[in-house]
Every structure is written in structure tokens, then in C-alpha cells.
Design a protein that fits this description.
4-stranded mixed sheet; 5 helices; 6 strands; 16% strand; globular
Length: 161
């Protein structure tokens, strides 16, 4: 009986851990603390992709569902980029790269975000690495445009000393 309980606990633990891992990979999380993201980005030598979006934005949902979430499922991107979101209308607290506190809305305003979705790529110090990808005017080419920017940002991060 004890070995059956142990086996059940082991199976349940594995299931819970695998579900948690799968859940982490199915959504692009909202950023809370850029200092933490920066440490991870620096250690992995990858840029931080930030999608600026808002609630009830159909184009934002399309970018997430058709591009960013599938990229989260593709392990190739684990070595290329960290993906996070900013809700431009949110008063949610946010720690900046500098360590100062602000809100999602204020950070979006400081970054001159007026159209959503907008994608920006940053290095671990908070410097922009590429031209932003603004809007979703050409869905057929969007994935290519996104990959170009990720590759450009990755090359800049890895070339930095």
C-alpha cells in the first residue's frame, strides 16, 4: 500500500510540474520587473521582446495567438529571446531596468506607444535594439518581419562585450 501511495504521489507530482511548464509556455506573460528579466537576458545573452498591447485589441490578440504564443512553444526561441507584454492601459506596477518603479501605462507613454500592437526589443540595460514593429498591416509577412528583428537584436546582444 505504501509503494502504491508513493507511486501515486510521484505521478501526481510529475503531472503538476508538466502542467505548470506547459502553462508557462502557452502565454506571453505581462512583465512585472525588468531588472529580473534583464538578469535572465544577460545570462542567456538574448534580447527582451516586449509586446505593447491593450485589452480588447483584436490585432494584439492576433499577434499573440498567431505569432508570439507559437514562438513560445518552439524551443528554438528559448535561445533567441525572452518575450513579455506591457498593457498600455494598465496601472499595474512595473519595475524599470533602472530599478525605479512606474506603471505599464507610464512606461508605454515614455516609449511613445500610441498604436497597438507594437513590438520593441531591448537589451539588458533597456536600450532599444531595432526599429519597432508597429501594428499588423501585413499578417502574411509579419512572422518574417518579427524574425528579422529578433535575429538583428540577438546579433547585437551577442556582439556586445
Amino acid at each position: 500500500m505504501k509503494s502504491a501511495n508513493r507511486l501515486l504521489i510521484l505521478i501526481l507530482s510529475w503531472f503538476i510540474c508538466s502542467c505548470a511548464y506547459a502553462q508557462d509556455r502557452t502565454e506571453v506573460p505581462l512583465v512585472r520587473d525588468f531588472t529580473l528579466e534583464a538578469r535572465t537576458a544577460q545570462a542567456r545573452k538574448v534580447p527582451i521582446l516586449v509586446m505593447f498591447g491593450r485589452r480588447n485589441c483584436a490585432f494584439c490578440d492576433q499577434v499573440l495567438n498567431e505569432f508570439l504564443v507559437p514562438m513560445q512553444h518552439n524551443t528554438e526561441y528559448d535561445t533567441k529571446v525572452i518575450m513579455r507584454r506591457i498593457d498600455i492601459g494598465s496601472s499595474a506596477r512595473l519595475r524599470l531596468f533602472s530599478g525605479k518603479n512606474t506603471t505599464h501605462a507610464h512606461f508605454a507613454k515614455e516609449n511613445n506607444i500610441f498604436l497597438t500592437p507594437t513590438i520593441k526589443l531591448f537589451d539588458a540595460e533597456g536600450n532599444e535594439l531595432t526599429e519597432p514593429l508597429i501594428g499588423l498591416t501585413t499578417p502574411d509577412y509579419y512572422g518574417g518581419f518579427l524574425d528579422q528583428r529578433i535575429d538583428e537584436a540577438l546579433a547585437k546582444v551577442r556582439a556586445a562585450k
